[in-house]
Amino acid sequence: MRLKSLLLCVPFALSLATADTKAEAVITHKMDNFPIAESVEINAGKDIIFLSGKVPTKKAADLPNAELASYGNTEEQTINVLEQIQAHLAQLGLSMEDVVKMQVFLVGGEETDGTMDFKGFMDGYTKFFDGKSSKLPARSAFQVAKLANPAWRVEIEVTAVRP
């Protein structure tokens, strides 16, 4: 009977030991000299939230729908999209520090000879993720041929974790 009681206690004791070493919900492994994470670990039992891709909104409702000037350049569009993401996360009780993964889709337009404006994107991105925080997302950025609106240069989707 004693052996049976001991065997029942072992899994409980092991779970306590594991809980101490895994106390942090999200562990970020920063990339040297670049404001993204090389990898992000998420411990079991955490809520993972997937946000659909967000695209820029017009600077004013009365501006034309398919003109670049209505949405701004890549930097302005990046800031607009990240502000939308930040607002949506706030509605969920989360912040930009809870973002663990980001996928960025960039379009090269006539103004950049068909090449994505990565510098413009980074100028907007670093207003939200400057590399000084220990909480940075793992991130990918892609040039795509087109988005749904010919004036859009940026679409961003993110994954967040509730701490």
TrEMBL record:
Residues 1-19 form the signal peptide. PROSITE patterns: UPF0076 (PS01094). GO terms for cellular component: cytosol. Pfam families: Ribonuc_L-PSP. It comes from the Bacteria. Keywords: Signal. InterPro entries: RidA_CS, RutC-like_sf, YjgF/YER057c/UK114. GO terms for molecular function: deaminase activity. SUPFAM superfamilies: YjgF-like. Belongs to the RutC family. This is RutC-like protein. It comes from Wohlfahrtiimonas chitiniclastica SH04.
